[in-house]
Amino acid sequence: MTGEERLWLGRAWLLGACLISAIAVVNVLTIQHDAPRLGVLPPSIWEASSAFVTLAIFAVPAGMALWMIRTRPRWWIALPAHLLAVLAYSVLHVSGFVALRKLAYVALLRERYVFGPLSTEFPYEFRKDMMAYGLASIIYWLALHRGGQKPAPQAMATSPATFDIQDGARMIRVPVADILAVRSAGNYVEFVLAEERRPLMRSSLSAVSEQLARHGFVRSHKSWLVNKARVTGLKPEGSGDYAVELGALEVPLSRRFPEALAALRD
User: Fold this and answer.
1) Mean pLDDT over all residues of the chain?
2) Domains and CATH numbers, the chain
């Protein structure tokens, strides 16, 4: 089992222990009230022995709940499995508390405990065990189901996007926001950075454009890409051409790239 499963099964067991203890105390008080001649010790032995065995065999419904959560079996598989499990649960419960009562009667009351005819007593106990098994299975299933529901992760501050520039043998990792523009330079591309560095990388401008398009870069000229987020102005140059202002840097915007003009004006 995982640590999370052990944690929630343990919590469910503690809840069951509290319920069983409360029921045992109520039953002892009820028996003493209805049959005061019995005293406190015999009903205490009956209820304590039943409670101790029940707490031990809670492993049966716990295991079945874990199996149900992990495998999610079809009902025609789950039903006979639960019937066998509840039968085993009841046999363990009855045989366990009978053994404990026999020992306690000899040790504390100096007499012999008689369970009664198995043909009538076991069906009576089996009906009660079915209800106890069903309740325990539901509690364990709910605990495991809740334990499997992870809280929604809190929104984390995303790290700034970066781009790796292979400048010769050296790799330079720069924030995308610091790239003002990219210029074609023969078999290379030149990155114009905000800090005025201009590293070169052997690549085509088209290849770099595909990588940076999702970060808001726009092809403004056959030789230039511009970072839309860093554009500070557009200056008409006549004949439909513009100069894209990125602070002190000016990059040409050709009339042959009308989609770039529309994107930068958006």
Assistant:
1) 89
2) 3-147 (no CATH), 162-265 (2.40.50.1020)
